[in-house]
UniProtKB/TrEMBL annotation:
Purpose: May be required for disulfide bond formation in some proteins.
Pfam families the UniProt entry points to: Thioredoxin_4
Family: Belongs to the thioredoxin family. DsbA subfamily.
Protein name stated in the entry: DsbA family protein
Domain Thioredoxin residues, every copy: 24-222
PANTHER family linked to this entry: GLUTATHIONE S-TRANSFERASE KAPPA, THIOREDOXIN-LIKE REDUCTASE RV2466C
Top-rank taxon, per record: Bacteria
Amino acid sequence: MTRLMSGVFAAVAVVAGGYALSGFNSQSSLPSNPLVGAAFAQEAEVDTSTITEMTLGAEDAPVTLIEYASYTCPHCASFHNDTFKKLKADYIDTGKVKFIYREVYFDRYGLWASMIARCNGPEKFFGISDLIYKGQSEWARAGGASEIIDELRKIGRLAGIENDQLEACLQDGEKAQTLVAWYQENATEHGIESTPSFILNGEKISNQSYEDFKKLLDAELEG
């Protein structure tokens, strides 16, 4: 999924504005205003140090792989439902690779999914992310904003998040604004313009097959 960075925030501002006018009248309550403030997070000084980096693998692994992905990106879902599982078994779980997952926010739906994935802390993050990616074709196509957020709520409840906690996470506008600012900082640093994108020991690489990932990782491990 490829989008110009400048267009991301324009799109966010548009959907946030439309929601501010009409979303509150929905029978199924939407998050109160996560994007109204978050859309302009890049214009304000936001302390992003409060955002937890989501990682897997040994902290001192010789290879670090960062993934930039959006929960609404079909290519990201394909990667997580297939290639990632092989990478995890062969490289991450064996202590060879430290894996870092960083969210990209192309739209409010991806941001809502991220807020649910982060709702139960780092220990549950990747498990909830798996559920979100597995169900992407269903929740992302459920209809309008109300239908989509209801499907995401179902995933949150399936993951064991209580209703009150789930709503508190979704309604946390300050957290949403901070997440967007954090995303922009990271994406600017690494020149991220499409998803999924990867940073392998500091070098940007594109999405590829497991066999091609394996060759790159083995080369790094061999030094």
